[in-house]
């Protein structure tokens, strides 16, 4: 009996131990992992709060209303604006010999006219077919029919007398004939000497698209480079921003610009420009006029009005017609119409570099009987050059 009781006690103890082990094992598996250690992070600066979250204000010294100096109203408050820097005045390059420096711009015209003629004249036999080719070369260079016939006749006569034709002899012969055709005897000076003692008055005319306003600005640089003081009249009031464009050109060389409201009376602006030119004792007043299509009767009437109003001060010393050299013979139609309204005294040929034909110089002079005085050979500020016949021909036929 004792043995049975002892066995039961041992069994109970063993079962209890096993149960404790099982429960302990389960508890060990269900324990959560320890939380990770949080890194040290610097707290961001506290944001301002309002209401209950606001911090208690710190004691700071304050001034009462009585301690603040208030303006009594006797001294006006002046608000100083930041100073505006005046644009730097440019010094244009001298005009003397400018065409010689720009002769490379005529390279394309040289290939068409000068080199083409020298190649044809260098043939061993100059038969009728060759002379016809020479004539065609001159015509395609925009020289015109009558000047072409005259040049071919003179060349035929001189080549026949010359007999042998070395390249140097041919070049000299062609140079002489082309210079004679361009006519170096014409006076190509831009007239700025007013007999009344006031400023010289120069009016610039031409259709839109020829570079008229730009040319007027460049002409101001030419006149300043030659030692003149200039006043600009922005009388092209019909084209948007024309006055701004001209004023910018003037500011670069220190020339004063007189302008009116957009769409205003051009004659009034021209009148005021001459008036201010006199008051400022300027050497030249340069007037840029409107340039809508030459077929518009209103434009021609307006130009006539501007001319009459300006001449109430003094007679015009110069009327320059700006022509686009790339338009060729079409430019002569414009020249005829403008010449009927105002007395053209000189021609400015723009865009003569590039695809323009050099012969247009001869054609326009023959058409109007007035000299080409200035030529534009690029888009640079100092690419407007006084026309020099010998330098021009040398650029056409090359060295």
> Rg from C-alpha positions?
44 Å
Supply the helix-strand structural class. Answer: alpha/beta
Write down the overall mean pLDDT. 80
Sequence of strands across the biggest β-sheet: 3-2-4-1-5-6-7-8
Describe the biggest sheet?
Answer: 8 strands, mixed
> Helix coverage percent of residues?
40-55%
N-end to C-end Cα span: 147 Å
Q: Helical segment tally?
A: 14
Uncertain parts: none
The proportion of strand residues reads: 5-15%
Describe the structure.
With 399 residues, this protein is α/β, with parallel strands linked by helices. 45% of the residues lie in helices and 10% in strands. The chain has 14 helices and eight strands. Strands 3-2-4-1-5-6-7-8 form an eight-stranded mixed β-sheet, with helices on both faces. Helix 12 links the parallel strand 5 and strand 6 (346-350). The mean pLDDT is 80.
